[in-house]
UniProtKB/TrEMBL annotation:
The gene is tpiA. InterPro entries: Aldolase_TIM, TIM_sf, TrioseP_Isoase_bac/euk, Triosephosphate_isomerase, Triosephosphate_isomerase_AS. PANTHER family: TRIOSEPHOSPHATE ISOMERASE. This is Triosephosphate isomerase. Substrate binds at residues 9-11, 172, 211, 232-233. It comes from Candidatus Methylobacter favarea. The keyword Cytoplasm applies. GO terms for biological process: gluconeogenesis; glyceraldehyde-3-phosphate biosynthetic process; glycerol catabolic process; glycolytic process. It is found in: Cytoplasm. Involved in the gluconeogenesis. Catalyzes stereospecifically the conversion of dihydroxyacetone phosphate (DHAP) to D-glyceraldehyde-3-phosphate (G3P). Pathway: Carbohydrate degradation; glycolysis; D-glyceraldehyde 3-phosphate from glycerone phosphate: step 1/1; Carbohydrate biosynthesis; gluconeogenesis; Carbohydrate metabolism; erythritol degradation. It is an enzyme of class 5 (isomerase).
Length: 248
């Protein structure tokens, strides 16, 4: 039985004080749910949030990780550095990194491997643009994004990873894939992995990320191949984020 997971991605938002208040409010409202929960915070707040969430169910994640171990890579943050702040997760290949900052399937695969090298669980973000969807290229895009990681890391690496399907056309737009549309792609991803290793496919958590809100989370999370969500804007409001979490 796969355990559910809800991850908040705060993106480039907040101040130290507002981030601490948000984390405290989330911790207070967690209750007794057995689902896993994490927040991916801006690098500069990792220390402060790590101090707040010690000995709580809330786990810490980073929004990216360097594709190199160390060296002359100005502005990058290595997996070793993230490990010092007890980061359990790190996003790799988020659509905004791919779209705005030139991350390629190959560099995302390298970031994935760097995270795992420090026992950080990579959350591999994959998904298609609206143009690609309208051209019926969704599955071809998914294939390319997954195969790049499998080629570098091997299918066994997915036993210690999370996949997040985020249709680019539904991120921050207010549009959301229908429950059936999201399930179709999640099922495809699981079958893609199953063709290489059924046991890993049965265990891997596949999250949906695309304008998840309290009013649509329940339907999405009820789908058999959707194991939780990667939550953007709604994770910046404790009440909304907690409603999504408790809808698992």
């Amino acid at each position: 039985m796969r355990q559910s997971l809800v991850v908040g991605n705060w993106k480039m938002n907040g101040t130290r004080s507002s981030s601490e208040l948000l984390a405290k409010s989330i911790i207070t409202g967690l209750g007794s749910s057995s689902a896993n929960i994490a927040v991916c915070v801006p690098y500069v707040y990792l220390f402060a949030i790590n101090e707040l969430i010690k000995n709580t169910p809330l786990a810490l994640g980073a929004q990216n990780v360097a594709d190199k171990l160390s060296g002359a890579y100005t502005g990058e943050i290595s997996a070793v550095m993230l490990g010092e702040f007890n980061c359990k997760y790190a996003l790799v290949g988020h659509s905004e990194r791919r779209s705005y900052y030139g991350d390629t399937n190959e560099s995302v695969a390298a970031r994935f491997c760097q995270a795992q090298g420090e026992a950080i669980i990579p959350i591999l973000c994959i998904g298609e643009t609206l143009e690609q969807r309208e051209q019926d290229k969704t599955f071809a895009v998914i294939d390319a994004q997954l195969s790049a990681v499998i080629s570098l890391a091997g299918i066994e690496a997915f036993s210690k990873a999370v996949v997040a399907y985020e249709p680019v056309w539904a991120i921050g737009t207010g549009k959301t894939a229908t429950d059936d549309e999201a399930q179709e792609v999640h099922h495809y991803i699981r079958q893609y992995v199953a063709a290489k290793d059924q046991a890993i496919a049965d265990r891997i958590q596949i999250l949906y990320g695309g304008s998840v809100k309290p009013n649509n989370a329940g339907g999405l999370f009820a789908m058999p191949d959707i194991d939780g969500g990667l939550i953007g804007g709604a994770s910046l409001d404790a009440e909304s984020f907690l409603k999504i979490y408790h809808s698992i």
